[in-house]
Design a protein that fits this description.
Radius of gyration: 16 Å
Shape: globular
Structural class: alpha+beta
Strand order of the largest sheet: 1-2-3-4-5
Oligomer: single chain
Order of helices and strands: HEEHEEEH
Distance between the termini: 39 Å
Number of strands: 5
Helix content: 10-25%
Number of domains: 2
């Protein structure tokens, strides 16, 4: 796992230096925090009736870094947190229990819908 700064958009590949990220470029605050402390973004957050589903997307084989792992673990106290590795057509998903399941992106969508329906009950 590299702790290097983001060099380009993981989705479209646009170089960060070519994009005005505005406030989403967290240097305005990370430079004021101690050591290597920095904010993280939320990749996917869905709310239904006060229940939260948070999904973090990572490239296949890449685990969240130490700080991000701590944040995700803290979020598990009040939200369902899934980590998805890869970008299709098959992805590996940790549905919060530590076990990786390989599913298609369509099946992942079905799991989100199932979560949404159960959260509404």
């Amino acid at each position: 796992m590299s702790n290097e700064p983001l060099r380009g958009c993981p989705t479209c590949g646009t170089k960060v230096s070519d994009v005005d990220m505005g406030l989403r470029d967290y240097r305005w605050v990370s430079s004021k925090l101690p050591g290597r402390v920095a904010p993280m973004d939320g990749d996917f957050i869905l709310e239904r009736k006060g229940k939260l589903l948070i999904i973090e997307f990572k490239p296949k084989g890449v685990e969240p870094g130490v700080g991000q792992s701590r944040t995700l673990r803290a979020l598990k106290k009040f939200a369902d947190v899934w980590v998805v590795h890869g970008d299709g057509p098959f992805v590996d998903v940790n549905f919060g229990n530590g076990t990786l399941f390989t599913v298609t992106v369509d099946e992942l969508g079905d799991e989100v819908v199932l979560w949404f329906e159960e959260a509404g009950q």
